[in-house]
Design brief:
alpha+beta; about 15% strand; WH_DNA-bd_sf; DNA binding
């Protein structure tokens, strides 16, 4: 199994958390931040990132704006007010999920040892 396969179901939550930590971010910046924060374990591809960004934008969770930086247009994404509430809700769900996984795997490791 590829190491990124486990991240697939959590990419939306990862994107939301990255946006919550910053005022706004552009796509490449998100991929690099995720890679840096995970010491290279999460290599988010454009093919995975942009469909999620488009869905979040269509759902009113994020908005985007284009800025010209050094002669190049760059599309920045940011959370809407609805998106900020949604991100908190999703983060709470993720924390609970991780806690449950930790409980399961710690119990399993204890029984195996």
């Amino acid at each position: 199994m590829k190491k990124n396969a486990l991240y697939k179901g959590t990419l939306q939550n990862i994107i939301l958390k990255l946006l919550a930590r910053s005022e706004k971010m552009y796509g490449y910046q998100m991929t690099q931040q995720a890679k840096e924060l995970t010491s290279g374990h999460l290599a988010m591809t454009e093919g995975a990132l942009y469909p999620i960004l488009h869905k979040l934008e269509n759902d009113g969770i994020i908005e985007s704006e284009v800025q010209n930086i050094n002669g190049r247009d760059r599309k920045y994404y940011f959370l809407t007010e609805k998106g900020k509430r949604y991100q908190v809700e999703k983060e709470e769900e993720m924390v609970s999920y991780i806690s449950n996984l930790n409980t399961i795997f710690n119990l399993k490791m204890t029984k195996l040892c």
